Amino acid sequence: MALTETPMQAERARTIFEKSKAGRRAAALPATEAPERPLAELIPENLLRAEPPRLPEIAEPEIVRHYNRLSRRNFDLDTGFYPLGSCTMKHNPRLNERVAALPGHARLHPAQDPKRAQGALELMWLLQESLSEICGLPHVSLQPSAGSHGELAGLLLTRAYHADRGEERTKVLAPDTSHGTNPASVTMAGYEVVKVATDEQGGVDMDDLRVKLAENADEVACLMLTNPNTLGVFDENIAEIARLIHEAGGTLYYDGANLNAVMGHSRPGDMGFDIVHVNLHKSFSQPHGGGGPGSGPIAVSDRIEPFLPRPQVVRREGSNGDGPSFGLDHERPKSIGRLRGFQGNFGVFVRSYAYILSLGADGLAEASETAVLNANYLKARLAQGRAGQRLPIAFDRHCMHEFVLSGKPMKRELGFATLDLAKRLLDFGFHPPTVYFPLLVDEALMVEPTETETKESLDAFAEAIEKILIEAEDDPEIAKSAPYTTPVRRLDEVKATRQPVVRQQLD
Fold it and tell me: What is the average pLDDT across 218-234?
């Protein structure tokens, strides 16, 4: 492995402003034949610049090379294995991208009259029906834009449900393994978070749950739960958990980030959940990450349905021999209102519905089976050799789609932290897994291989871990200075967070 910066690495780290030279041009445009008008006539004077913007001056070949390098700078699934835990970073079929790019889908205006958007509304209605079946709950809204947005929607629905019953509840229970967005959403919705402990098996500590319910009697509005959870284990007490929460008068909310593990095998509604959010941009074919478009639909039980966001996509039966039509139902007096300006990111809906149609019920079930198989295979591989000694499984039981390792022995015995391992993996061609989460595991490393990776990829990842640990036994300083092959070397992450450099300094 290369241990020093290469010329190519240094070149890739240069910005376009650093490549700029005064007087260079990509093109020479002819004089315009249209009459010129003062900018002040076209743009309000208070919006005009006092000076022209300082733009880079660069030749066309260098512009092409610059953007080509940028396109290859980030690690992605087309580059290699991306085992980022709880994020389901799996391959997205190109067919679904092509379908979403069809003109009738890509060029549809969001303000189009429903009468002239029947095909789009029908697709959305069919997607709602599909998600309803997958989740085991009868009603679906596609409005939320992401999983976190779905969480907020679920909590607002919970608030509306209790208010409609004349109740004012103030607290939401959340396990200490919950995703970080859960407590953030709770706070945004105006509730107080009450943390519930994890037992030795990695599930909800039932004794602590009973204590928290007793201590906060008549105040608990909801329990937010992920099942399987972020430790990658399925909570075997889910039926009892649902009974306790419902007897206390609360709602049960399902964080659907890990739905990839159970599709076609178990349904949140059958477990007793009242509200579910689904990450279409994870489990159902959508490029995930980079701040791009997402979608976090919510599925709900009958008692929550009156409060769903408006408008709802609905199917209306025809009359006088006409077929069914599709429209938007605005007449929802108990609704929590709109969650966004329009109905959601339509391209995401197209990709997800294409994914569901192409796989079918059996295919979705097989995807989950393979995700679980891959995770348990990789877990078994990493339980061997040095990884088994230095990176033990945090909760060593049959896992679902992901599992969590603890780098505590590695750090104690070698002075080699989980972050060092993660950085060094980049030099071996692997994106590192999630690190330091969940917080209850010391030096945590969360691994999710997904169903789209081959056995060879999983073996190569396990072998890279073994090689890095052998290297660390001889000289841990090598990894402490990694990565060596990326455009930018290891940063001071605390300083980068607190004092980010977001502007190019110009001479």
Answer: 96
* Count of C-beta atoms within a 10 Å radius of residue 270: 12
- The CA distance from 364 to 97, in Å, is 19
In angstroms, rounded to a whole number, what is the distance separating the alpha carbons of residues 83 and 430? 8
Instruction: Report the alpha-carbon distance of residue 176 to residue 196 in Å, rounded.
Output: 6
Query: CA–CA separation, 111 vs 215, rounded Å?
Result: 49
* DSSP β-bridge partners for residue 316: 325
Indicate the burial class of 476 (C-beta count within 10 angstroms; 0-12, 13-18, 19 or more): middle
Dihedral angle sign, alpha carbons of residues 14, 479, 230, 500 = negative
Integer Rg of the chain from CA: 26
Q: SS3 of 140, please?
A: strand
Q: How far apart are CA 281 and CA 351, in angstroms?
A: 9
- Closest by CA to 208, choosing from 440, 419, 388, is 440
Quote the CA–CA distance of 367 and 264 in Å, as a whole number: 9
Instruction: Assess contact for 410 and 418: CB atoms under 8 A.
Output: yes
Pairwise CA distance, residues 278 & 205, whole Å? 25
Does the reported pTM lie above 0.85?
yes
Mean pLDDT of the chain: 92
**According to the 3-state scheme, what is the secondary structure of 451-477?**
CCCCHHHHHHHHHHHHHHHHHHHHCHH
